[in-house]
């Protein structure tokens, strides 16, 4: 089954609003000739309004790096899905390893964020992945299954078409290390099988699964050639217009 690739740039806590606007302009230009794949950038919350203006007439989608699960309320420091939609955000990253391991977000909290995103019409990108210790202990697949099952708890089959999953081995994020294409494919295939067991195989074949973990111009082509890798969640390389443009135009 043909799945439309998605290249997503996660800018993390980088760039002032002016810097974000400048980078967004160059990416919008670079993506202007791309018709067979989706491109998304997720700037910091403070830059969303300005970047939204730049992307207004562009095929590049606007994403956010996290999302709350309620429309409004006493949730200091959170940003609601309604607030994000006001600026044209269409996708949100949930469960990124930095949220899990630095800020202590639990599987239950991540599931609430994901379900909140769906409830308010946003596309969640659910991040899952093992630590180096998990991989060395031989429990990578158990960790992935637990995170996928927990993250998708309560999600109806009819909503799964709007869910994207990103496999990001924690040991490869920002380290310069990349999972080999064989390691990445094995994990992606396993994640798809978990989704198939939760729902049905036909639906699992429709779900896009991205690879995230030191994606660079030098490795994107080989990663994207694997049958179960449907795109990339890009960190550091997404902050450089030239490298991200090359990743967008993977072969």
Give the SSE map.
Blueprint: E1 6-10, H1 17-30, E2 38-42, H2 48-55, E3 61-64, H3 81-86, E4 91-94, H4 97-101, H5 107-119, E5 123-128, H6 132-136, H7 140-151, E6 164-167, H8 181-198, H9 201-204, E7 208-211, H10 220-224, E8 231-234, H11 241-248
Parallel strand pairs: 1-2, 1-8, 2-3, 3-4, 4-5, 5-6, 6-7
Subunit structure: Homodimer.
Binding site for substrate: 10-12, 174, 214, 235-236
InterPro entries: Aldolase_TIM, TIM_sf, TrioseP_Isoase_bac/euk, Triosephosphate_isomerase, Triosephosphate_isomerase_AS
Features:
alpha/beta, eight-stranded parallel sheet, 14% strand, 39% helix, 11 helices, globular, 251 residues, TIM Barrel
Q: How would you characterize this protein structure?
A:
- The chain is an alpha/beta fold.
- The protein has a single domain, classed as Alpha-Beta Barrel (TIM Barrel).
- 39% of the residues lie in helices and 14% in strands.
- It has eleven helices and eight strands.
């Amino acid at each position: 089954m043909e799945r439309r690739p998605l290249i997503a740039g996660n800018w993390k806590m980088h760039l002032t609003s002016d810097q974000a606007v400048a980078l967004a302009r160059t990416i919008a230009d670079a993506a202007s000739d791309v018709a067979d794949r989706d491109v998304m950038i997720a700037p910091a919350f403070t830059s969303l309004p300005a970047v939204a203006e730049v992307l207004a007439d562009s095929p590049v989608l606007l994403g956010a790096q996290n999302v709350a699960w309620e429309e409004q309320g006493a949730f200091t420091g959170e940003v609601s899905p309604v607030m994000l939609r006001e600026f044209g955000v269409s996708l949100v990253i949930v469960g990124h390893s930095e949220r899990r391991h630095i800020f202590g977000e639990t599987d239950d909290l991540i599931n609430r964020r994901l379900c909140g995103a769906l409830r308010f019409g946003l596309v969640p990108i659910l991040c899952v992945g093992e630590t180096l210790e998990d991989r060395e202990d031989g429990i990578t697949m158990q960790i992935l299954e637990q995170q996928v099952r927990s993250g998708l708890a309560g999600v109806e089959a009819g909503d799964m078409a709007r869910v994207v999953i990103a496999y990001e081995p924690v040991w490869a994020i920002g380290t310069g290390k990349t999972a080999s294409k064989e390691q990445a494919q094995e994990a992606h295939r396993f994640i798809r099988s978990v989704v198939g067991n939760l729902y049905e195989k036909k639906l699992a074949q429709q779900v896009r699964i991205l690879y995230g973990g030191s994606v660079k111009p030098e490795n994107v082509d080989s990663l994207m050639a694997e049958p179960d890798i449907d795109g990339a969640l890009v960190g550091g390389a997404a902050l450089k217009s030239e490298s991200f443009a090359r990743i967008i135009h993977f072969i």
